[in-house]
Amino acid sequence: MREGLSVRITSEPLDPGAAWLAAAHPSAGAVVVFAGTVRDHSDAGGVTALDYEAWEDRAAAHLESVGEEILQRWPAQRAILWHRTGHLEIGEVSVVVACSAPHRDQAFEAARHGIERVKHDAPIWKKESLVEGEPHWVMGS
């Protein structure tokens, strides 16, 4: 894996502060951290928890590909793409994308691109446990 790129698929809790530290670089004037959290509702109604599953090898390869894309497309110094698996309660962090770049617009664009690619294309699935009704799998978003 290229220097400046960190990819992680893990069942351990994610720390956005640690991602910020991993993304920080002396040449960067901006570090943007996106942390996706489990919310208490979806289109299906009230949500009590999420369970994430991933095809780990392919998911890690996809995150690495997205990180490489970020490092090539923007003058990003570092790209951090971490995703959690397993059972997550409301408020827990499910995904972190952090990018550093010389200027804020570059860092924002790179981080936005990263989370959009992860959410749409990574082989990671979530099952919503609902307040009313049966749990169900959600594909992509």
What does this structure look like?
This protein has 141 residues and is of the alpha+beta class. It has one domain (5-132): Molybdopterin biosynthesis MoaE subunit (Aldehyde Oxidoreductase, domain 3), CATH 3.90.1170. The chain has helices at 16-23, 56-73, 104-121; strands at 5-10, 30-37, 41-42, 45-54, 78-84, 86-89, 93-101, 124-130, 136-138. The strands form 2 sheets. Strands 3, 4, 6, 8 and 9 form a 5-stranded antiparallel sheet that branches. A 4-stranded mixed sheet has the order 1-5-7-2, sandwiched between helices. It starts with a strand and ends with a strand.
Write the SSE topology:
Layout: E1 5-10, H1 16-23, E2 30-37, E3 41-42, E4 45-54, H2 56-73, E5 78-84, E6 86-89, E7 93-101, H3 104-121, E8 124-130, E9 136-138
Helix pairs in contact: 2-3
List keywords for this structure.
alpha+beta; single chain; 141 residues; elongated; 40% strand; Aldehyde Oxidoreductase, domain 3; 5-stranded antiparallel β-sheet; 4-stranded mixed β-sheet
Number of strands: 9
The name CATH uses for the topology is Aldehyde Oxidoreductase, domain 3
- What is the percent of helical residues? 25-40%
User: How many individual helices?
Assistant: 3
Gyration radius (Cα, Å) is 15 Å
Strand content: 35-45%
Q: How many domain units?
A: 1
Write the CATH homologous superfamily: Molybdopterin biosynthesis MoaE subunit
Q: What would you say about this model in short?
A:
With about 140 residues, this protein is of the alpha+beta class.
